[in-house]
From TrEMBL:
Pfam families: DUF1345. Keywords: Membrane, Transmembrane, Transmembrane helix. It comes from Asticcacaulis excentricus. This is Probable transmembrane protein. The lineage of its organism: Bacteria, Pseudomonadati, Pseudomonadota, Alphaproteobacteria, Caulobacterales. The chain crosses the membrane at residues 44-62, 83-105, 117-140, 200-222.
Amino acid sequence: MTALSFVRTLRTRPWLSRAIALALGLGTLLGTLTDLRLSQSVLVAWNSAAVFYLIALARLMMTANTADMRRRAETQDVGKWTILGLTGAAIAVCVVAIASELIAAHDETGLSKGLDLALVGTTIVTTWVFVHTTFALHYAHAYYIAIRRAEPPPLKFPDADCEPDYLDFAYFAFIVGTAAQTADVSVASKAMRRLNLGHAVFAFVYNTTILALCINIAASLLG
């Protein structure tokens, strides 16, 4: 992907662009102007940007109507796989930072150790919500892109007479992320099955990693 197409991809996603700018700017400031460890700077910057982005998306999801969703699907069709790739890369960096922070926290005591573990716990939650919210948006846009092209809907909801909103797709995404199944929503296209498979595998790997990290946190607290 060229730099120009990457810029074009971010330009169609203003809130994501702002979140990336916030993460980079805050991370740089913390790394140069404070005594925080690199892992601490990365995690604080990530959490700040992720919470900022999730609040913006929550507002969007609660207020958007079907016409808004169709319009966003049209503008955000380009670069969707790049966004998922960037999401995966960001999560990988966070997991490495979490592991580094847990190693550093093992030798600390008292308030310092508690704050480090609280930072790790917060990161686990924000990252989990961020991942599945990103997939929810992707599912929604894939659905309405298919509708725009007069193709059969790639997802079939039980109440077929109504048009699904963002919360319906969030429901689907978080069910996949927590239970690795699709509940009462049927997958009806090859492309969606592949995306769903990738989501399920991604969720399994992340959940397994988080379980291991939580065991490590418990051991640190007991130690």
